[in-house]
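Private note to self, pasted from the team thread so I don't lose it. Backbone tokens:
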């Protein structure tokens, strides 16, 4: 199923429809401020397993949680003063901050890790879904390494729907981007290391 939402003003009833799918253990594809992402609710272990299977058992280290705001991120990750200032300066935006995970992250989502990637996309659709859900989404970007020159299969929601028939819904928020998020490791005290340069430069 393809569900249309408009970034300028996401329809509340439609957002609730998406959230009901997530609460029932569904896996969706939704827009972010970078590329489209596969996602599920953090409290749905079977959905997390489906998510990993859809990405061919993708390493859990490449999965992230999408939060609506820094306060919510601080519930699921340990955000010290240094990290808080970085997050406040750069988010919402196309960044993934690697932080020590809090005890609220489930073992199924962690898969042996002690860190978690945190995203707050500058995308009203993603933010509306997470706010209505009341918890983060576990996400991983749609595959970008097997499309060659056919970039529409990672940017066009209609073709993404064709590519991922196993998902419960593709949230169509218009054409997506091609450039991934900038990944910043904040696990060392008072230090930020850019481990992948993406769409935007980090502001210190």
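Design output:
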């Amino acid at each position: 199923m393809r569900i249309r939402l408009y970034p300028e003003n996401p329809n509340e009833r439609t957002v609730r429809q998406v959230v009901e799918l997530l609460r029932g253990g569904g896996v969706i594809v939704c827009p972010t401020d970078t590329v489209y992402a596969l996602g599920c609710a953090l409290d749905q272990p079977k959905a997390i397993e489906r998510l990993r299977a859809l990405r061919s058992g993708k390493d859990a280290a490449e999965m992230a949680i999408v939060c609506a705001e820094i306060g919510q991120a601080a519930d699921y990750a340990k955000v010290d003063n240094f990290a808080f200032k970085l997050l406040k300066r750069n988010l919402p935006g196309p960044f993934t901050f690697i932080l020590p995970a809090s005890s609220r992250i489930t073992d199924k989502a962690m898969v042996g890790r002690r860190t978690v990637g945190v995203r707050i996309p500058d995308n009203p659709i993603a933010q509306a879904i997470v706010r209505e859900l009341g918890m983060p989404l576990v996400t991983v970007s749609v595959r970008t390494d097997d499309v060659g020159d056919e970039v529409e299969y990672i940017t066009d929601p209609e073709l993404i729907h064709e590519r991922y028939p196993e998902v419960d819904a593709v949230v169509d928020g218009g054409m997506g981007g091609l450039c991934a998020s900038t990944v910043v490791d904040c696990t060392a005290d008072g230090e930020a290391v850019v481990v992948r340069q993406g769409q935007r430069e980090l502001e210190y």
